[in-house]
Amino acid sequence: MMGNKGLARKKYDEVVIIDPVFAGKLEKVFGAAKSSLASQSFSGQLNISDDLESELSKGSTKGLIAVSEKNVKKINIKEIPKVSHRKRRARSDNTVGITFARLGNYSMAIDYFKKAIEHDPEEAEYKADLAVAYYRTYKYDQAIRYYEEVKKKKPEMVSQLDFIESRGETTPKYLKFD
């Protein structure tokens, strides 16, 4: 009705995915919108004919399950897992650190990787990122220290980080940063 056919088509496609009864009725809906717009000033309300209204409403609840007391599951509050805000904060800090590393600002990246480890000291991924950031700033002793921790906790990550042991002789790409 407002002339944005692209957006209307996108929304129509979304509706068809949700309820296939609307499939093939795009032209009828557009026609109703045009006639509604032509007959009165735009009020934000789409007026469609009664026959189109009944055609759309006939099948619109097909496949939906009626809600009743039988199929409503009782939820015990104690069963809901608690969210670790420290882990969420650690993930966020690590993401910011990766962003700084991608920009080449390794000193800021190191600060954020340290914060991530402070909030979640068990996550080896954060330590691996910190090791690479230290490596890129030529602080090989610190890089190797964190690399050794990662090697103990997640040996499968060693192949991605084994360049750290070269102490600057090789500088391969680290997929997260490059």
Element pattern in H and E: HHHHHHHH
CATH homology superfamily of the largest domain:
Tetratricopeptide repeat domain
**C-alpha Rg (nearest Å):** 29 Å
Number of alpha- plus pi-helical segments: 8
CATH fold assignment of the largest domain: Serine Threonine Protein Phosphatase 5, Tetratricopeptide repeat
Share of helical residues: 55-70%
Give the end-to-end Cα distance, rounded to a whole number of Å: 47 Å
Number of strands: 0
CATH architecture of the largest domain: Alpha Horseshoe
Structural domain tally: 2
Mean of all residue-level pLDDT scores: 78
Quickly name the level 1 CATH class of the largest domain. Answer: Mainly Alpha
Major sheet: none
Shape: elongated
How much strand?
under 5%
Structural class: mainly alpha
List segments where confidence is low: pLDDT < 50 over at least 5 consecutive residues. Answer: none
Explain this structure:
With 178 residues, the protein is mostly helical. It has 2 domains: 5-59, no CATH class; 85-166, Serine Threonine Protein Phosphatase 5, Tetratricopeptide repeat (Alpha Horseshoe). Helices cover 57% and strands 0% of the residues. The protein is built from 8 helices and no strands. Helix 4 (85-102) packs antiparallel against helix 5, helix 5 (106-119) packs antiparallel against helix 6 and helix 6 packs antiparallel against helix 7.
Topology (SSEs and partners):
Blueprint (H helix, E strand, L loop, with lengths): L4 H14 L7 H14 L10 H10 L25 H18 L3 H14 L4 H13 L3 H14 L4 H4 L17
Helix pairs in contact: 4-5, 5-6, 6-7
